[in-house]
Amino acid sequence: MGEYSSYISGLSKASAVTVETFRTRALELVPDADEGVSYGMPALRYRGRPLISVVHTQRGYSAYPFSADVVASTLPLATGLAATKGAIRFTDADPLSTAAFDHLVRARQAEIDAALGPVRS
User: Fold this and answer.
1) How does DSSP assign 4-72, residue by residue?
2) How many domains does the chain have?
């Protein structure tokens, strides 16, 4: 079991379902991602770089794409949700949409690819 899976197994059932749903979706979008830790948080990593982390917080959840530019570019899709420079916050009552989450993951993947160059086969 990886770091992210271990983290999820320690959450309440409802929180685990929410976080696991996002983890699974990220892996559908970026199958080459693997589990790890980034900035002290359980995360999915891509090409050795942090890709995305969705964690449970006292007030709900936070999605971290590890990029202020990616957060900023996603805000139009996350109308009404609170955000910081590094994360978008949401709750079960006011969830992060699939479109916004997909944008977070794809934009971060593109940012990593741009920094590292083409993926080699």
Assistant:
1) HHHHHHTS-HHHHHHHHHHHHHHHHH-TT-EEEEETTEEEEEETTEEEEEEEEETTEEEEE-S-HHHHH
2) 1
Residue 100 included in any domain: yes
Identify the CATH number of the domain in which residue 59 sits: 3.90.1150.200
Residues 3-13 have pLDDT tens digits of 888 999 999 99
Structure tokens, 120 = 């080699």
Q: Find residue 38's DSSP bridge partners.
A: 41
- Token code pair at residue 68: 């202020």
DSSP state of 88: E
Note down the domain range covering 60.
3-116
Amino acid at 75: L
Quick check: is 121 in a domain? no
Positive/negative CA dihedral, 33, 37, 17, 54: negative
* 38 vs 99: CA distance, rounded Å: 24
Cα–Cα distance between 110 and 19 in angstroms, integer? 23
Average pLDDT taken over every residue of the chain? 94
Q: Is residue 87 within a helix (H) or strand (E), and if so which, with residue range? A: none
